[in-house]
Amino acid sequence: MKSRILGRTGLQISEIGFGGWAIGGTSYGPTDDRVSLRAIKYASDHGITFFDTADIYGDGRSEKLIGKALKGVRDRFVIATKVGWDFYHGGTKKNFDPEYIRFAVGESLKRLQTDYIDLYQLHSPPIELLDKDSSVLETLSLLKKEGKIRAFGISVRTPDDGLIAAQRFGFEAIQTNFNLLDQRALTTGLFEVCVKA
Q1: Strands 149-155 and 174-175, sheet pairing
Q2: Which of 1, 68, 165, 172 is the most exposed place for a label (fewest CB within 10 A)?
Q3: Which residues are catalytic?
Q4: Mean residue pLDDT across the chain
Q5: Model-level pTM greater than 0.90?
Q6: Is there a contact between 84 and 94 (Cβ–Cβ < 8 Å)?
Q7: E-strand spans in 60-133?
């Protein structure tokens, strides 16, 4: 398995990562936790060192499974998770308040059975929020100083949002859709800007 440095994080990861959305078991239909745990073990046994999830995936279920599967060998892997969808306080709504981010990172740490998150990402925030409220980025910087996260990034709604995030804010990694069906990131200049950063 080839590896590379992830963005400006300094984190070395496998070029192929394990996405944890489906194992949450809510978006793609029912799942079997035993099968999910076997899939995580198979991935880790075959050179995958990067696991990407979010607290909202299965209302914490994906994080719990990754935490359980990697317990005892956690230091061999890079775990990324996300914050911004508040499912704790009745219903589900976007929430990027500093107090909520601090609360949510603590809950993610418990589910992942670790004392640090390698990459903590804002989960599809309205990009204009970052202009209006500097406390969001300040909170992420403080969490990094405190050792609760090693790096922070953003998972964007669109490649256009990614371009703005790359040009105007201090994110160490940017996540956007890019696949055979969705190639919008090629036309925005996002990749070029990220390479220069």
Answers
A1: parallel
A2: 1
A3: 57
A4: 95
A5: yes
A6: yes
A7: 78-83, 85-86, 93-94, 117-123
